[in-house]
Amino acid sequence: MKNKPVYTLLLLLLFGSNGIAHSTDSLITILHNQIENKNYEGQIATHFELAKIYKATQEKNNELEQLEQALKTAKFHENHTDQIEALFQIGNYYGRIQDYSKVVETFKELFLEYQPLEQEQQIDVCDHISNAYRRLGNNELAYEYQLEALYHAEQIGDSSLIARSLYQIGNIFFFQYNYPVAIDYYQKTLEICKKIDFWRGIFNCHGAIGGAYDRLNEANKALKHNLTAYHLASERDYKLGLAYATHNLGMSYALLNQPDSALFYYEKSIKLKNEQNDTWGSIATLRGMGEVYLELENFPKSKEYLSRAYDLAKSNNSKPRLLETSMALSDFFSKTQNHEQANILLNEALALKDSLANETVLQKMSDAKTRFEIKEKEEALLLKDKEIKSIYTWILMGSLGFTLLLLWALFSRYISQKRHAKELELKNRQIEKQHQELREAYSAQSISSKQIFEQNKQLEVSNTELKRFAYIASHDLKEPLRTIGSYANLLKRRYQNQLDKNADEFIDFITSGVERMYHLLSDVLDYSNLDRFESSVEWIKTEEIVKDITQSLNHQIEEKKAIIQFTTLPEIKANETHLSQIFQNLISNAIKFTNGKTPIVQIGSRFAKGVPIFYVKDNGIGIEDSYQAKIFDIFQRLHTNEEFEGTGIGLSICKKIVESYGGEIWVESSPNKGSIFYFSLPVETKGVSRESFQSLPFVASN
Ligand code: ADP
Fold it and tell me: pTM of the prediction?
């Protein structure tokens, strides 16, 4: 099969087109010789090719042998496709030789053993079986198989195959003499064929309709269709078609009582049919001719044709044809007065007719149709059901997908909300905690601030009261004290040495007591006055202050022969009275607290972190470490008034002033060696560069 073009080409090359017939034998020999050495594909192809050659040379037995060989080889090699192909070819072969029983047998093998076939193969198989059954006169099975073919053709929606099936169903009714129904089917087929522009179909339908009208003795209608068919076949030189069209025209003209025309076309038909070995067709034409001759009362010719038709029908094993010819022959015998023969043939015909279209057959055909209609309806329902199911499936899948999507969206939203809520909760907790801490801190702070505020308030009140008291006490007490002092002095001046010794001594006690009290009140007044007046600041030349103090302490300095030394001191921006009070107290103490030694007092300054620190250094009695902090408190004294006069207020005044500037005052001292009193004043300075200051050893030196 596959090698077909190769072989044909080989033939042409070797022998040329004229020599093909002669060369066929040689080719067959070559192919036969080669077949043994070939593989499976080669063998199958060779068998099919040989069958084709035998078909062309009309060596029927050899053709069949090759096809059967092909089938055998394909079966041996279990090649399904090639087996189907071989069976198709065998079936067609039997069709060609008009052995309808074998056609049925072969195609039934395909139908039963090779399922599932492809839809188109299934249609072909059913059509072949149906046609064979029709020829054999089994209309019931022919109808059933054709309905099956129609069903599959409709399934694949192939219009030409649908048309073919409808046409064949028409043929089944035709051969049951049910011409009106047959015409209906042919008309339906014709419409389809026209729609798809299938000319051969159109031709067949016209021919068939014409034939049916012939049978119905409607000669004019028949002639119209038959002529159309004839022209269609002529235009395309369609031999098989022309064979039938001419036959039908013969019939039409016979009906129209035009025996010459009828015989003319019948002759044409029989010639064409003989060319194609169409026994089946020839029977009908021979019968037709016999009938025309009978009409013309040419009995010998009539008998000749009718007998030939009858014999062929018998050998062809074709019931419908036999029925037609036996009827026609019976008619002949009837007309030629051979009633016995006529009767025999008539009975034979009636029996055949009954077998072709009796009640049972018709019922079975109707049943088959119902079955197929039910099957079709079931299929349609099934299809609809399938469609509905698939729609449902899609809807279900869609909704499922949508639901899943929705769930996913909801879930992820839920998760993110949960996470968000968790974060919020955490933040809230943190904020709450911070709030709590803040609340606690705030309440603690507010409590403590409140307490501090309250205490400060109380302190302020008591301070104010104390200051007022100190001021009032010191100021107002001064007045009566001055009176006491004046009168004590008066007593002393007037009555000294006039009274007894004790009295003089008592008066001295009073005057010295008053004097001390007076100093005390003055110092307390100074101390309390520090807060009472707002102090103004100005640039002060510190050296001038120190000089003034030295002047004012002149009496004391001379008495003790004290030496006062001072280095260059910086100008500072401060209150003059404040600076005088500090230097006054420190220098006077430095002169005062000595133990017989000549007091040497050194005054100087230095800078620490840009802040001026002044010092007053002496070589006096010194102060023990444990008392060094205490001496800056008010009324704190380390000695009796007999040892060293004083009120114990001086240093506390110094401390209060220094602290009011944000500075500090402290002492470094060593008993019997001396003391250095320092005080820092964080104020603006000028006039002296920092480099000019020499730092002093903090430990006092002599
Ligand atoms: P007062 O000098 O009136 O006693 P102060 O407040 O000035 O009061 O001094 C308090 C005490 O500090 C003094 O009583 C004295 O004991 C001690 N003191 C002060 N200056 C010196 C000094 N330069 N050397 C030794 N002791 C001193």
Answer: 0.48
